[in-house]
Amino acid sequence: MGHSHDHHGHHHHHHHIDPEAGDRQVAFAVAINLLLTVAQIIGGVVSGSIALIADAVHNFSDAISLVIAFFARKIARRPADARMTFGYGRAEMVAALVNYTTLIVISLYLAWEGIARLIDPPAIQGWTVVIVAGIALVIDLATALLTLRLSKESANIRAAFIHNLSDALGSLAVIVGGTLVILYDWRLVDPIITLMIAGYILYLAATEIGPVIRNLMLASPDGHDAEDLLEHIQEEEGVAAAHHLHLWQMTEHEAALQVHLVVSDPDWPAAMDIRNRVRAMLVAKGISHVTLEIERASAACPNAPLIGH
């Protein structure tokens, strides 16, 4: 019983995954995906199927995304130092940005190729396509399982996980296409599936890139409203005003806030008490890094904006 309870605990506090074990899973996933890419490209060239090559590219992007994710995970775990005072947590976001950008470029290229094939569909060896895509499907599902647990705690690994799932769908589509070619010699199905895969990659990358860019632009974290927090700060007893508020996402799981507090009471112990209350209130709201600057009402910043500098 105790054991199953512990397992539930695992679900809620994501930080229990041993980082080294996580790295090993990612490394293994990379290896099988790279092998698969080679197999699919050879299969695509031999059989003349561009859908198979599209699937291979998708797989290669998985492997690359996992390689980037792998190194970004390692970098992100480094502690803050004098050169990087905020730490290295954003490495994963930079990695995700690179990743999605490449995917967008690749999918546009595949769409172009697919359209060219629609105009002049070549003959395809269906059996080769079905067998290679079948192997791909098994490997995609295995990789997805390898990265499933890690994906719950990191946008970076989640990107890789989503690639893998969509890859499995891609392989499935290629299998269907190959089967139709074997049964009915329906040549158009290959470029059609290529376009579907390309469109899907494009859609995924385009939707996922937004939050990553927001994070890199130091946007306010989801679930926290800067104006709302400012109101709460100003409502605290003894706070005459507050300004220069900055609210941003420190790492994927930590929000940070800094603000100037104007206290009406020039008495130092009272000011400290106000500061502690404001800090406690913000921490209770889930803001882990709080920096407060105390100013006396008589000497506050003139004409300071409430939010930003």
From TrEMBL:
Compartment annotation: Membrane
Family to which the UniProt record says this protein belongs: Belongs to the cation diffusion facilitator (CDF) transporter (TC 2.A.4) family. SLC30A subfamily.
Species annotation: Donghicola mangrovi
Gene Ontology, cellular component aspect: plasma membrane
Membrane topology, as annotated: Multi-pass membrane protein
InterPro entries per the UniProt record, alphabetical: Cation_efflux, Cation_efflux_CTD, Cation_efflux_CTD_sf, Cation_efflux_TM, Cation_efflux_TMD_sf, CDF/SLC30A
Domain Cation efflux protein transmembrane: 28-217
Transmembrane segments: 26-46, 93-112, 124-148, 168-186, 192-213
Keywords annotated in UniProt: Ion transport, Membrane, Transmembrane, Transmembrane helix, Transport, Zinc, Zinc transport
Name this protein carries in UniProt: Cation transporter
Gene3D superfamilies (UniProt xref): Cation efflux protein transmembrane domain (1.20.1510.10)
The keyword Transmembrane helix appears for this protein: yes
Entry-linked Pfam families: Cation_efflux, ZT_dimer
Domain Cation efflux protein cytoplasmic: from-to ranges: 221-296
Any GO molecular function: zinc ion transmembrane transporter activity
